[in-house]
Amino acid sequence: MTLIQADPQTVAADAVLVPAFQGQAPVGVAQAVDPETLAALGFEGKAGQVVRLATSGLEGEWAAPVLAVVGLGPVPAGAAGNAGAAGEAPEGDAAGPQPSTDALRIAAAVGVRALAGAGIAGLVFGFDQPEQVHAIALGARLGAYQFTAYRQPDKLAPARLVLAVKEQRTKAQEDQINRATSIAHAVRDARDLVN
User: Fold this and answer.
1) Using one digit for the tens of pLDDT, what is the confidence trace for 58-98?
2) Phi then psi dihedrals of residue 76, to 5 deg
3) For residue 191, what pLDDT band results from cuts at 50, 70 and 90?
4) What is the pTM of this model?
5) For residues 156 and 113, what is the distance between their CA atoms, to the nearest angstrom?
6) What's the rounded Cα separation, in Å, for the pair 142 and 112?
7) Quick one: angle between helices 171-194 and 130-143, nearest 10?
8) For residues 108, 20, 36 and 23, what is the CA-based torsion angle, rounded to 10 degrees?
9) Quick one: angle between helices 101-114 and 130-143, nearest 10?
């Protein structure tokens, strides 16, 4: 997994994945994506929902031909407390509602599975605290798991994952990506043994 600084429109990938809370516009691309279009496609932002859109029909210029939106579920209630808990903004980030790290991990896993067939998948979640980056990276890595020793799936998981952050990437974020990668490799090895 590669960590870069970019916005959703500039990520050079086959598909870009962004999250959306239930009933809200997708994080980071609210200006480009018409909520009525998402509603017409049946997307409500419920946890586990994914919808894919061609970026040629969206506002602005996009480097990726496909935008996928994954649901985070309802907006968490509450606003103060420890980082990573539902509805609580990590220190120094007051940019709006903050999902739990579990919600981020699950959304990343579901989203990456939905992007099967894409060579490069760009994840632009807009939640850049180190613990959030860890959850997104771990979810994406686990979501990309496929056991292919005895049968080939119809579509392979993305060959390369790119996680984009809003601000300059930090050593803490890179450390969390490395930690998530180590955990994901151990889980994948265990899954391979079971299969």
Assistant:
1) 888 999 999 999 999 999 886 333 334 333 333 334 468 89
2) -65, 145
3) confident
4) 0.84
5) 9
6) 9
7) 30
8) 130
9) 30
